[in-house]
């Protein structure tokens, strides 16, 4: 190893470890369901994005197994050579149906979807108005585009309007985009899409919504754009196939000409091997399940409401969540980490989230209940929350 690399790695790793910021990963020994096993111990899992429990759904597993028997395990090439299987075409038709758009394009992950789509349409002559709490993949996609990034305060529509006006009046930019998460994963709040659309119309902004945490969850499962009935007003409906849909991948749904452009200009579509066939078939089947029935969605919300009510009754500060994502805001970083650690020892896996992921002094333990949790599991979790909360003086 080069001496320069060695000292770079050693110095930086030491600094992280000294500051307690090196994230030691503990593997889950088995499926990532409502109960997970770590180091041989069963834990109530409140930290997965598997909102509808589809990651371990029996019907989807069967679809994946049968698809492997027919198609094998890999797509064999990038989409534009001969990696586009008939399964990918069916998936994209299903995505367009699911989102109520003319067309859709899929990618290998939600993260590379944002990198791909933003940088395919925006360039150095453009500007992007980006919510201050947008996901890392949006930030990286914006950076990759080389457009001017103008952050607006989180969900602050006055700030957005002022910055949109200033950007237009500067005359510096050919195109201007406004980009936001649909559901913010740290607090569970929903973007103010009707106001964003109004501002976008006034200033001719391109609209881009990353609904990673909304698809399958809001809008009766169809997402946050549908929740507000804005399917005709949002240009880019982006989402992941790895959270509520339970598999892996990302997508953009929108107008045919936009999808046509992404197919010739977004680099992961052109230069990275297509999603594997079994995943594609399982995703398509999962989307059909959501189109056919709201049962899983309804169960998710029932569980979310149940957990929220229980935590609130115990006296926890659960913030302003409008979705099943339920933070327990503790405040001080060390106490937040201690709280999460004690929950783990008692049998609840709920990760702590602290600065720099959230603002200093707003450390939290974030709970992500799913449709697959039973009420008994949530009751067990609440008993542990009460015990640890009292022990650490967080609740009375
Ligand atoms: N956008 C948002 C808002 C996300 O939370 C995530 C996942 N953490 C992504 C994009 C990336 O999605 P994926 O995990 O499917 O790559």
Automatic annotation (TrEMBL):
<protein>
    <submittedName>
        <fullName>Glycine C-acetyltransferase</fullName>
    </submittedName>
</protein>
<dbReference type="GO" id="GO:0016740">
    <property type="term" value="F:transferase activity"/>
</dbReference>
<dbReference type="InterPro" id="IPR015421">
    <property type="entry name" value="PyrdxlP-dep_Trfase_major"/>
</dbReference>
<dbReference type="InterPro" id="IPR010962">
    <property type="entry name" value="AONS_Archaea/Firmicutes"/>
</dbReference>
<dbReference type="InterPro" id="IPR015422">
    <property type="entry name" value="PyrdxlP-dep_Trfase_small"/>
</dbReference>
<keyword id="KW-0808">Transferase</keyword>
<feature type="domain" description="Aminotransferase class I/classII large">
    <location>
        <begin position="42"/>
        <end position="382"/>
    </location>
</feature>
<dbReference type="InterPro" id="IPR001917">
    <property type="entry name" value="Aminotrans_II_pyridoxalP_BS"/>
</dbReference>
<dbReference type="InterPro" id="IPR015424">
    <property type="entry name" value="PyrdxlP-dep_Trfase"/>
</dbReference>
<comment type="similarity">
    <text>Belongs to the class-II pyridoxal-phosphate-dependent aminotransferase family.</text>
</comment>
<dbReference type="GO" id="GO:0030170">
    <property type="term" value="F:pyridoxal phosphate binding"/>
</dbReference>
<dbReference type="Pfam" id="PF00155">
    <property type="entry name" value="Aminotran_1_2"/>
</dbReference>
<comment type="subunit">
    <text>Homodimer.</text>
</comment>
<keyword id="KW-0663">Pyridoxal phosphate</keyword>
<dbReference type="InterPro" id="IPR004839">
    <property type="entry name" value="Aminotransferase_I/II_large"/>
</dbReference>
<dbReference type="InterPro" id="IPR050087">
    <property type="entry name" value="AON_synthase_class-II"/>
</dbReference>
């Amino acid at each position: 190893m080069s001496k320069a690399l060695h000292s770079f790695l050693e110095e930086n790793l030491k600094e992280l470890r000294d500051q307690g910021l090196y994230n030691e990963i503990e593997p889950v020994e088995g499926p990532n369901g409502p109960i997970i096993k770590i180091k041989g111990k069963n834990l109530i899992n409140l930290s997965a994005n598997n909102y509808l429990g589809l990651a371990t759904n029996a019907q989807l597993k069967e679809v994946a197994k049968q698809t492997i028997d027919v198609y094998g395990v890999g797509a064999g090439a990038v989409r534009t050579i001969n990696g586009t299987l008939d399964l990918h075409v069916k998936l994209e038709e299903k995505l367009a149906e699911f989102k109520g758009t003319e067309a859709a394009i899929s990618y290998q992950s939600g993260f590379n979807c944002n990198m791909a789509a933003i940088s395919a349409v925006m360039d150095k002559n453009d500007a992007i108005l980006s919510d201050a709490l947008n996901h890392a993949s949006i930030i990286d996609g914006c950076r990759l585009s080389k457009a001017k990034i103008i952050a607006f305060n989180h969900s602050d529509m006055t700030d957005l309007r002022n910055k949109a006006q200033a950007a237009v009046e500067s005359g510096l930019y050919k195109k201007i985009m406004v980009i936001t998460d649909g559901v913010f994963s740290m607090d569970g709040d929903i973007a103010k899409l009707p106001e964003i659309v109004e501002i976008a119309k006034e200033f001719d902004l391109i609209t881009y919504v990353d609904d990673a945490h909304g698809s399958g969850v809001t809008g009766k499962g169809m997402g946050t754009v549908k929740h507000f009935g804005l399917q005709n007003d949002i240009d880019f409906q982006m989402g992941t196939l790895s959270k509520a849909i339970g598999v892996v991948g990302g997508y953009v749904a929108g107008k045919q000409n936009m999808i046509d452009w992404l197919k010739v200009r977004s680099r992961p579509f052109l230069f990275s091997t297509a999603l594997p066939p079994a995943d594609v078939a399982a995703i398509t089947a999962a989307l059909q399940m959501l189109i056919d029935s709201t049962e899983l969605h309804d169960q998710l919300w029932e569980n979310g409401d149940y957990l929220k009510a229980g935590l609130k009754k115990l006296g926890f500060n659960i913030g302003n969540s409008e979705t099943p994502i339920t933070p327990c805001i503790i405040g001080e970083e060390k106490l937040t980490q201690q709280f999460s650690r004690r929950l783990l020892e008692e049998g609840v896996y709920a990760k702590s989230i602290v600065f720099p992921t959230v603002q200093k002094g707003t450390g939290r333990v974030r709970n992500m209940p799913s449709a697959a949790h039973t009420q008994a599991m949530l009751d067990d979790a609440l008993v542990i929350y009460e015990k640890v909360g009292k022990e650490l003086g967080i609740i009375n």
